[in-house]
Records
---
Amino acid sequence: MSTVVPRIGRYTVEQVIGTGAFATVYRAVDERLGATVAVKLLADNHCLDPDIRARFLDEGRALRRIDSPHVLRVYDVGETDRLQPYLVLEHADRGTLAQRVAGLRASGWRPSAHDVRALASGLAAAVTAVHAADLVHRDLSPGNVLLRSGIATGAGAGPDGGGGGLVQPGERLLVADLGLSKDLARSSGLTVAGGTDGFRPPEQRGGPSRVDGRADVWGLSAMVVWLVTGQAPGTDPLSPADVDRALLDLGLPVALRQPLLTSLHDDPARRHPDAATWLAAVESALTPPPPQAPAAVGPTSLRPVWVVAAAALLAGGLVGAGALRLVDDGNVDVADRVGDARLSIAGPTRADVGTTVTLEVTAEGVDHWAWLMPDGTIYTDRPSVQLRTSSAGTAQVVVVAVAASGERLEDVHDLRLVEP
Amino acid sequence: MDRAVATLEAAVRGGNASLARRQLGELRDDADHDAALDALARSSADGSVLAVELLVEAVDRFGAARRAVRRFLVDEAAVDDVTQDTLITVARSITSFRGEAKFTTWLHQIARNRSVDHLRRARAADPLDDHHDPHPGTVAARMSSLVASRAAVQQLLAELPERYRDAVLLRDVEHLPYAEVATRLGRNVNTVKSHVARGRALLAAMLVDRGLDS
């Protein structure tokens, strides 16, 4: 049983708020400054081990280097008469994300797009700050993400921060435990007790391997998948269908599947390069596409930025290989591929003047695409377009997109129009 | 940087202490410091007495020993003690430095071992018995008592560079407090502490050299 220590250094201990194999965390009061703090004390039986001490103290120094409202702050480091080092840390009064989600789920809550956005933006801010200090967290998991009240900045306090959500207005997410327990376990030859199983990226599961910031990019999506599906993705290979089902079930955009799967790729080189890129992809997937309208109505609901992007793509792209293509009779389906991403237009290549032709796009591995119509109109993200034909000749419809890797995809569809 | 280190090595080989010290004083960043420490450690292992002296100075002045000790220890007095023990161990065992690892890696291992010694000792000791300097049981305490009790060791003092000799003599033979040593020598207390630590370390190296180390 845990012994309650009345004082640690000058801090008056109130209660145990967390225990692990190597350290116990206490809620304590700093009476000089009149503040509640968390004191993390290295276990008595480990405090003579120089390597465990070094790791423990390293965490304090690492936290000190990081400057972010989304990463737990360290205020002090000290040592007891028993030679146990301790870290004095920011106190997260609203507990862990694991506790919050368990509580919410028990009352029938289901994550909304706002919840996903709050989690994604808070975690991405934390990971960005960790990486800016040349550190890799390596252990993002629901038990290592904390909530704190009192400061009205942060992910939960956005303009659309409705009540009942994951992160309440005025609360903020805090990332804690910089991969410490895992490293400590390794240095003592012990294995980590469960909890973060399933949240470890593939490169940290086997033997020694190089781990960099993209391990945390994996972890970001692991957290979102956990929020959405209730399960960590690392235990079994994640089935895209499982994610789709969960997203559909929650009424979340299925487009979210793509950034999640990209950053959960086994090969770090195939993931988003950093947390900011990941967040941009997630937020864009969460933004609902404009309502669909028949093509003939015209470009009324375009997002200007995307139009500019599509125009730039065209300027650079149509001169290339896609521009000249032999027209064939019948239906063809010529796809453009970059890595896992695929883009192709399906539909007739020959039609009678006066009829309406429907073209459909198959887009895999891209979040957005744009149609470029023969008259110069651009439509974004529509699964299909309709073309009303008026005179004989050839018409060209192009669809363009940018894969997560940043490479451009395009498919050109030529349509020969003949007098009936 | 490579040229600065090459000049340093040449100065050590030629026995030009003042040129070597000037060269050391001009190194600015950590990479330069590490390269200089590697060069001095290699020359020390090859038997250069001047290199040992410069190495002890440089490890102390660059704060390399203290930094290594701080990885393991928190308490300021403990960091002081173990930094001194580390410096002595470096001086005494530098002949066994193989040059396969970086010097700082080797230093880190020594700091780790001396820290373990300290932690074991501190666990066993009465925490209130805190007025000894250096703390009983440390390598520094052993050196200090060797200087005090053995005439042979006192004779070796004559071979120390002057600024270290006076400091060790006043501290370990005359048993004056650091503040008093500082007043007598017209130096500040921290400088004196550093000079005593370096002097003890160099004496330890000499004892090994003469086969007087037990």
---
Amino acid sequence: MLALRFPQPTALDNVPASLKLLLLAAATSGIFFISTLGTMFLIFLAITTFHFLFGWQIFKFSLNLLKPLLPFIIIMVFWHLYSRDLTGGLLIIMRLLLIVSLANLVTCSTKTSEITEIIDKILRPMQFLNINTQAISLSVIIFIRFTPIVLERHHILSLAYKCRSGKRPSWQVILPLILSIMDDADHVAQSLKSRSTFRV
Amino acid sequence: MPKMEKNIVLISLFSAFIAVLGLAPKVMIASGVPITAQSMGIMLCGTVLGAKRGALAVLLFLALCALGLPLLSGGRGGLGIFASPSAGFVIGFPLAAYAAGWLTTKLRRLNVFYSSLVGAIIGGIFVLYIPGIIGMSIILGKSISEATLIALIYLPGDCIKAILCAALTQTLFKLRPNNVLSRV
């Protein structure tokens, strides 16, 4: 429910997550060595076409993921127009688009559970350093379980505020939300203790 | 109350709280000035939970964002956040929460409002902006002073968030002093 995934399965989903992450690291490092705008543009075109091969829906979804970069792109264009170095600005914008779209491609085609497994493997040696990896796993589970609940509660508090005041709620609902989180923390901690699910 | 369990649950629930502040609609402070409450969540983690728990809550939140959950404001998530111009700010989030919590605890001689205000301003603005500006300068290929100019756009909103954060921490302290762990 929370995961950032493509709207439909792709062939990339079958590629092992470790290989995808390794290739992403290599590609990201490689991009910093490209200094010609033409090459950058060709690679971006190739990545865009690659997205398009998976269908219109995925192409549109991927473009939407690049939207948050728009304010930076606008600032960069105006900045470089002012400093009369538009080529330099376009090079930075292309680099940004390339790295972010590649990272999104890996993220959206990899299950959260696959990445969690890799992290679990990375964390395993930490057990020998007396670091409680069970606590980390438990935190992730509680987070995933409770985020929709906290979101729903925020929605209910907002509705209640709107009903009583007739105004659109803003920061006023934050304090009651914190209070409810504190109450939940007491209950969940007590429940964990009584079920002995977590041993220190 | 079992302490270890309580700490783990508080860290996880405050991570969820930061996520919700990013998913919730933008907060309107003054007419026509929309700001997202997520960075206020980072400040609140520090001023309410204290330095270590606050920083751990933010670290957990960031780790899950990196795993691909679209929880950063604007529905951002995945490894791409560490390659975007705001990567420095994202990396600075746990440092900001730690500094905000540390100062709120250290300045316990002051009223809760003032200690958390100092914590939120120094932690949530100064400490956050240092990696933020460095990151922006590296990724956008700008000098530090040029990147500082770009980052200054966020400053008025962040000052308002710091004041709100201090006011919320103080109200929480008045209602339930034991819940403000940075002062317990």
